[in-house]
Amino acid sequence: MKTLSTLILTLLILFSISCTHEAIVQPIYTDTGSIIVDPPPNVKSDTVCFNTEILPLYTTYCSSPGCHDANSHEEGVILTTYAQIKSGITAKNPGRSPYYTIIGDDMPPKNSPKMTSDQIATILKWINQGALNTNCINSCDTTKFTYTNPIQALISTNCNGCHGVSPGSGNVYLGDYASAKAYISANQALFINAITHSTNLTPAQRMPPSNKMVDCQISQFEKWINAGYPQ
To answer: Is the pLDDT of residue 82 over 80?
Structure first.
């Protein structure tokens, strides 16, 4: 009997250990149709976040002034909201998604900043996941704030559609470390007000124009600046 009890106890311990796996992030569906993904700290969700990964790409690379923004609406196309972008996307069918297949061909136009292969792959992954209106809240690690990780990627996603090719829109070029550091250090208060969408600025001065970055990303920028722009 003692041997049997020991065996049962051992099995229970092994079962308990086997059940300590990664937490599963459960999405929360809102009344507006968006899906909130809020993983706890240090738990990474594989879900592509529309608000932090997809919308900024379309707004900065496709909806800059003179293109597919609300004022210009070139060819009758506006790409500043989920509904507008989704109208040219077929969930789980990238080949039938004209707002995906045109990227890298004629869009963005010649001489305009281009999306990277990683950014295009992120859009493809989003489509294959169902092209959902995912709204991620706790989407970054605020203990990381060097240019290499994550500032360069944040600038590329949120800014480089307008400011990634010299001289850049408004003569602001952020396409490399030296240029980003030089501009931001010389205009620190303006830059912070822009990314926090301060009401002290006009809507056109707030960056990105159509969608403020989430708080943890703003925190990463502020920590990078306060730490002296570590590379």
So the answer is: yes
